[in-house]
Amino acid sequence: IDEPSLGLAPLIREELFAAIARIHSEGVPVLLVEQEVSQVFKMANRNYVLSQGRILAEGPAKLLMADETLRAGYLGL
Questions:
Q1: Measured between alpha carbons, how far is 55 from 75 in angstroms, rounded to an integer?
Q2: How far apart are CA 15 and CA 37, in angstroms?
Q3: Using the 8-state DSSP alphabet, how is residue 45 labeled?
């Protein structure tokens, strides 16, 4: 799913992420490209941070969140 929350109202965005989480919890693999990092990190098993088509970092959310440079420069957190 490529940028599903783009342009959506906050309430609709919440419903969308809840639906994606339900699908994932039922064992269906989901490949999600999304800039709403905080939502994705709640449900993703594996994360990739891309910049200009290159993988800058990969791993579980906890590992990526521990890198302050990555957090500030790329994750917007």
A1: 13
A2: 16
A3: S
Specify the pTM: 0.77
Cα angle at 50 between 49 and 54, to 5 degrees? 130
Distance set, CA 19 to CA 10, 16, 40, 50, 61 (Å): 14, 5, 13, 25, 20
Q: Which of 60, 27, 35, 69 is nearest to 17 (CA)?
A: 35
Q: How confident is the model at residue 39 (pLDDT cuts 50, 70, 90)?
A: confident
Give 47's pLDDT tier (boundaries 50, 70, 90): very high
